[in-house]
Structure formats: C-alpha cells, structure tokens
Design a protein that fits this description.
By secondary structure, the chain is α+β, with helices and mostly antiparallel strands. The protein contains three helices and ten strands, in the order αααββββββββββ. Helix 1 packs parallel to helix 2 and helix 2 (62-74) packs antiparallel against helix 3.
Amino acid sequence: MDIRIALLLGIILLIASPVALTTDVPRDSATTVTHDAGYGYEDASGRASAKGDLNYDGRVTQEDALIALQMAARGEYSKDADVSGDSIITSLDALMILQTTSAGCRIAVGKYTVDVADTIPVPIRVEGGVDVGALDLNITFDPTLLSVKSTQNGAFDSTTINPEVDSGVVKVVAYQAANTGINGSFTVAEITFEALKVGESPLDIEIVTLTDSSPQTNYLAHSICNGTVTIC
C-alpha cells in the first residue's frame, strides 16, 4: 500500500479514536519525551532541524508524517512534531506534515566552494511562496570556519538580522507590515561570510515560524534545503 494512503487511513482512525489523541504533557510544558530507539527523533549531532523534520535528515517527507502519526497513537510529545503549535501531538500534526510533502514553499540556501579569505554572499531564498506574511528562522554555521562580515535585508517590509557570531547562528525575523503577503520566489535576507580556513561548514536552516499574512497567521507548509560552504 502506498505510504500516503496508509497515512490517511491512519489519520482517519486516530480521529475516530479520541483516546489516541491524548497526552500527559501539559500545554505549557517544554518537556520532550525520550522515544524508543529506531524512530530517529533525537539528532545525535545536536544540530537544529525544521519543524516536522522528525528523522533529522534536513527534509520534511512522508516518513516524518508517519513518525508523527505513530507519536499521536502512543501519546508522545516532541516540539519538532508539534507543527500546529497546540502543545499536543495529534493526527492534525501528521496531516500538516503530510501536506508539506506535496505542497508549500521551500526555504533554501546554496552550496559553495571557495578559497580561504574569500567572501561569500549567501542569500536565503523562499521558492514558490504563496501569501507569505512572516518568517522567523535561524541559520547555523561553523564559526571556526566562517565569519559573518555583513548582512542585507530582503523582500519583506521589516527584517531583523541578528548574528550570534560566537555560537555560529544568524537569527532572521521578517514580516510584512503595510503590504500583503509575498508570492513567488524571493530573497529573505543575504548574509556575507568570510572563509577563515580549510574545511566544510554546514549552512543549516531551522524554521521557527512561517505564516501567511491573514489575521489568523495560518501555518504555511514548507520544506527546507540546507547548504554547505567548502573551503579549499
């Protein structure tokens, strides 16, 4: 049976079974449950991931939706699976992740090969956006290999870029203020790095929030494409 059909059937069964949709984790709790081995919930490298990326492979896929469905059935909780933001894992989270695999925009950075002392402009791009109203993201890099030299705002009405140089994180918060949501492909922000020494640094994206421009600030389905900088 196709995994998408199996997931939809599982979601229907969970909706019909309220007991399977409950959890003991309080709604104001920041606790993350430790899960059985083999599910891949924990990122052994400690690297941040996008919401819905439950096997931490840098992509949101049908496999992640299946993991969320299993978590809902078990009454387990993980903040990465809570894409609906209601502090409980239900079939809704699995459905939202499933929708992400077939629709929605992509947030991407590229892959670069440079020499030591080169500067590298790295645009953070949204591809295929529909009514994008707000985006809050982090991009992580190796601070022993790259240094942030400058930043530049992109297409949003308002953008705040906060490089945390020592920890290797650049935080970007962008939103539409006076104008409607943005459609199509566009640049969120551009970060210019300097290559410090030979090595390979990840450029890993974590999406904190991505919503439309409506008063309800609806969640937007999305995928991510991480990048790298290889320094020769």
